[in-house]
Predict the structure.
Amino acid sequence: MTMKLFSPVTIRQMTLKNRIVMSPMCMYSCKDESGLVNDWHRTHYTSRAVGQVGLIIIEATAVTQQGRISVHDLGIWSDDHIAGLSELVRLSHEHGAKIGIQLAHAGRKSTDHGPIIAPSAIRFNESYKQPIEMTLEQIHDTVQAFRDGARRAAAAGFDVIEIHAAHGYLINQFLSPLTNQRTDEYGGDLEGRARFLMDVIEAVKQEWQGPLFVRVSAEEYAPGGLSVDDHVILARKMKSLGVDLIDVSTGGVVPASIHPYPGYQVPFAERIRREADIATGAVGLITSPEQAAEIIGNDRADLVFLGRELLRDPYWPRTAASKLGIKITPPEQYGRGWL
């Protein structure tokens, strides 16, 4: 059981040296609002590569300026972003890590300066702006923006693309009946509400032949919201379109009371993996080596995504290996201090 956490795994043509993933976490560090990579990003992500994380997925990266979660997010809406993103890829590869990018659009949860858009004109809460209901032209333009983002991600050399369809951002807003009240082909039943996600997947696949992940919120913690039952159905459809792994999170589409505990989201990943027959990533208060080893060892998920724990300890894989009695190879420069 313990060894499997540190065993290689191949997803499509990509082989990871272990099952430990750095979960995408916004850094809000583009101080000039350009969306361009700066020294903070170079240091932050490369440190986790040095720390022997198998796969790093960089923060939600906006496919349009209007779609930024905050004005300080990384962007991929312009070819000007490719050079900096390529540098993150080079630095990660130099230390043996694979690296992915999460393509995102915030929809009604954007705090961009101008007007914001959503499937329906429903604000998240009183502290957010009122969104404009998207026209069909805006929907098609946004699908194209995801396709353009995928082209740029490929040009930058990323190993993985993850589509952000969770946490109440734009794609999640289309999926949920709590936020999508459309009566056209992008609304109505689950098939209609999922059309935007499926269009995005197909558009991304036009530009991307590598591993493709999708992050979902498998439980919305609100009456009438989506549940894991719905996401099993969605995962089967995504698999048929060529998605390789579902990164299973929960919540965020509407204000809700959530009571987290260690591993509280793992059962959702386990069920989607079993019932949709697709690889999954488990997230959510995964902190201890023993906990991560149990999830992977018992085939509850294929990868463990760590967030805050990797903020606290960039060398968590070394910590985990030491605690579990596993020997992993350090960077040559750190060998004399790698216990």
Remarks:
- The mean pLDDT is 96.
- The radius of gyration is 19 Å.
- Residues 136-156 form the longest helix (21 residues).
